[in-house]
Amino acid sequence: MTIPTLRAPRRDATENRAALIAAAKVVLNTNPDASLESIAAEAGLSRRAVYGHFASRDDLMRELVAIGAERVATALGSITHENPLVRIALIASGLWHEVENIRVMAVFTVRGPLKHHTDEALRPLRQGVLGAIHAGQAEGGIRPDIEAPRLARLMEDAMFAVLEESTSYAIPIENGHRLIMLNVLATIGLGWRDASDFIDAHPELAWKAAS
């Protein structure tokens, strides 16, 4: 009995799928409600060609969301630092830089109707943040009056609040880099002056270090 050999996708089919995903990032970052026709047009393909790869707009969205969540989780999950507050600030600034050009899509990914599709990919990152908060509370650098899981969720909200602000009112990249750290540090218990001084006291948090 001969076992059939699995054939690799045709090169044009693979390229078309990649083109659709790339086009979706561009179009949906401007308008999260954009139609499949708009995405296909951006990719230089017909609507019919889209259905050769994705059965529906939701299927395309799910794949795009999964790719984005995996990318962010991989990039930020490797961040380590012996100081829990520095680690948290690095994660915040890292998120800003990872999604700089796709902020609308980033907000949609985490807060939109498909957010449950990101939970598995983001779980390790969220566990790392929770660990940093526990460590910071034990050392006395992070407020202990709010339980760590809730504080971790509030910290995530603080990061995405800056991203949402930037989608409505432009924020220069360097300013956003600092603002997202300030917002997170304030959430976990630092006063605004202390948060600013903390950032300035750690060279690894400087704009050039993160660029």
Task: List its salient traits.
single chain; 211 residues; mainly alpha; Arc Repressor Mutant, subunit A; Tetracycline Repressor, domain 2; 2 domains; 11 helices; 0% strand; elongated
Task: Break the fold down into its secondary structure elements and pairings.
Elements: H1 11-30, H2 36-43, H3 47-51, H4 57-77, H5 84-98, H6 103-111, H7 119-139, H8 148-168, H9 173-187, H10 192-201, H11 207-210
Give me the CATH fold name of the largest domain. Answer: Tetracycline Repressor, domain 2
- C-alpha Rg (nearest Å): 20 Å
* Mean pLDDT level: 83
Q: What structural class do the secondary elements suggest?
A: mainly alpha
Query: How many strands?
Result: 0
Question: What distance lies between the first and last C-alpha atoms, to the nearest angstrom?
Answer: 58 Å
> What is the helix/strand order?
HHHHHHHHHHH
Kindly state the percentage of residues in helix. Answer: over 70%
Beta-strand fraction estimate: under 5%
Shape descriptor? elongated
Provide the CATH architecture of the largest domain: Orthogonal Bundle
What does this structure look like?
With 211 residues, the chain is mainly alpha-helical. It has two domains: 10-55, Arc Repressor Mutant, subunit A; 62-210, Tetracycline Repressor, domain 2. The protein has helices at 11-30, 36-43, 47-51, 57-77, 84-98, 103-111, 119-139, 148-168, 173-187, 192-201, 207-210. The N and C termini lie far apart (58 Å).
In a nutshell, what does this entry contain?
With about 210 residues, the chain is an all-alpha fold.
